[in-house]
Amino acid sequence: MKLVIIGLGTSGFAALLAAKKTNPSIEITVIDPKDFDLLHLCGIPYGIGEELELDSLKHNLGLEDMGVKRIKGKAVKIDTRAKLVEVDNNEKAEYDKLLIAPGSTPFIPPVEGKELVHTITPLENTKKFKQAAEKAKHIAIIGAGAAGLETAAELNKKGKDIAVIEMAPRLLPKMTDQDMSDLLKKQLEAKGIKFYIPRGVERIAKRYVLAEGNKTIKADAVLMVAGSRPNISFLNNSGILFDKSIIVNNKMQTNIEDVYAAGEVAQVKCLINNKPGPSAGAVPAYRQGIIAGINAAGGNARYKGIIYTFVTVLDDIEFASVGFNESLAKANNIEVVFGRVKGTNTASWFPNAKDLIVKILADKSTGKVIGAQALGPGAAKRIEVVATAIAAGMTLEEMQDLELAYCPPVSDTYDVLLAAVEQALRKLKR
Amino acid sequence: MNPKDRKYHPKHMWAKIDGDIATVGITEFAQKKLKNIVFIELPNIGDKAEQGKKMGTIESVKLVSELISPVSGEVIEVNEELLNTPEIINNHPYDKGWIAKIKLTTWESRKKETEKLLSAEAYEKEVA
């Protein structure tokens, strides 16, 4: 049995391990253009800052020891009848089962001066940006998603003058509501980061960025982190169905029986509305890779669905979220009831207790929890509870009975999350 | 810190009287004592409020406190925004965090009641 994996990222790596565990005699070939194995993408902002060396994000997987063959190149064509993948170095790989997991590429909007911007990947571009940033006094970051904000916070720590420009009215627009975004923005502004939001970019020049409203923002270096696009253009005419990303079933199987897809190229079921949605982030990519790997190797596994669990650490600010925010709920015709409570990360009487704000959102008609956002130390701990609750289909009422871990330095007898649940529930019953 | 354009009830409520309408809310001292406010039960429009009597409740994570009406009259408006975001009171107890508007009963009772309320200075001494 021959398994070919296109892309050695989170999904490809997870699939490779799972396939080997499922069927130790499986022959695996990996097609990937990098001159090293895995890159820990989520560590890049910390590598641009002072936390770590960019090269330490390269991870050697010991593919040879596992008996995995490696083709260095990019897949350019798939022939699903002949079961053959063509690579840009003219090599060909035959498969019995194929996994498509080449990830995504930074998206650069068609703006004047776009050739002057830096991108956060691939690694050689990261390095160029890091060098430019070291020489720069003023740095503009276009896009207030996780990568943009993390990079902003890291460079701000190094004493750079940072401007973040975002088109949407919120920071982390897919995760936050306006109220939580405003609170987060205030905390980042207090650290000296400047925000131009909501503002589109009109022109990029050598020493400045011109933003909407005729706003000139000084910039010796510009980083574009305005999202990414799945690497699927090579699938044209392959017969593999894709829309914005590849359509798969819960076995991570495409419309072609022996072809699987996972990670950022795949469109997976979202557990909140049971509709297909984009895959985002490394954790779902890993899980999808496992499911695809098991199935491709002859096992039987199902992907349950995505709920967009998220955490970011910006300097010493922790923000986490899961599920739908108010605008996603609205787009899905869900009427929302929310509870939002400012409590403390520790027992309220404990020394140096810090503010921890938790907001929980539920479907007004059913009481089912659909999302949450938390800002402050310990945000992720609370969001992980909500992620579990959403996966279990719990209502606010059911969440009230949860017994959470308590010790004064990390929580309170009545945790701020449960206070938010109570508030939402009482609003619902009012 | 307590605005001088209004009167205070010793149960930590303020009343800003304009003609025969009093806008009422809780004081800075009260919001600080409550800390993070999570819930408020407002009176209904049309309810009769009586000076010194309960007109609703206000809760923080660890306190449930009665809202005592500083004046008598009929509730004609409540700040419904507080139902969704009661923490407005923490941030703006004297303006955006107002609780209700009460139409005062009669001219005589208004005068008698107003005399019982405290000035900003007198209230500050009270809570000092």
Describe this structure in words.
The complex is a heterodimer of chains A (430) and B (128). In chain A, helix 1 (10-22) runs parallel beside helix 6 (282-296). Chain A is α/β, with parallel strands linked by helices and 430 residues long. Chain A has 10 helices and 27 strands. In chain A, strands 5-2-1-9-20 form a 5-stranded parallel sheet, covered by helices on one side. With 128 residues, chain B is α+β, with helices and mostly antiparallel strands. In chain B, a hairpin with a 2-residue loop joins strand 2 (13-18) and strand 3. Chain B is globular, with a radius of gyration of 13 Å. The two termini of chain B are 12 Å apart. The model of chain B has no long low-confidence stretch (mean pLDDT 94). The interface between A and B is medium-sized, with 15 and 11 residues.
Evaluate the radius of gyration of chain B: 13 Å
Strand order of the largest sheet of chain A: 5-2-1-9-20
Helix content of chain A: 25-40%
Structural class based on helices, strands and sheet pairing of chain B? alpha+beta
SSE order of chain B, as H and E?
EEEHEEEEEHHEHH
Q: Roughly what fraction of the amino acids of chain B lie in strands?
A: 35-45%
Q: Helical percent range of chain B?
A: 25-40%
